[in-house]
Amino acid sequence: MTEERRVLESFINRYHAVKDLQADILEAFDILKACFDSGGKLLVCGNGGSAADSEHIVGELMKSFKLQRKLGTDEKALFGEEKILAEGLQNALPAIALTAHSALVTAIANDNSADLIFAQQVWAYAKNSSDVLLAISTSGNSENVLNAVKTAKALGRKSIAITGADGGKIGEIATVTLRIPESETYLTQELMLPLYHCLCAMLEIHYFS
Asked: pTM value?
């Protein structure tokens, strides 16, 4: 059994409610690996608590999560005499939280439509054919998140959705949907965090162990 699979097995053992998601988690993991292997980046979006989750995910991918990610010898050599800087930096998996740009988000909402705050960014950022969108919506029907998924699809980009049990409209068009088996928002959110931590840990082990 690979270390990545051990992380997934541990997650399933601790959270029995999501045992039926195992195949979908592996599919999402494969999509993310293909993204990063090809020099792509991950775009993440959601509203409210899901906006906080979006930024949390980016934080786990862009710096050390559980493992050290020191630069390699060749990478450090790029810095010449700036050894302290090179020692302080960590390797990362490129990810952008589409929720984090407050001036841009409010400008789009004010000048165009609040339903376009994520779609506009997907349209602008997802230029690499390997880029992937991670869309978080407990209902699966958040209009601005749905529009982001529609935009990714129009661009030919893959999308991963994390939703509640129903999956909603987003679940119908995302490449893979991780449906948390809960219908109440806060109960869904309680399982979302360990779910995306599992994916982040699997990716970190794959790339940095």
From this structure: 0.96
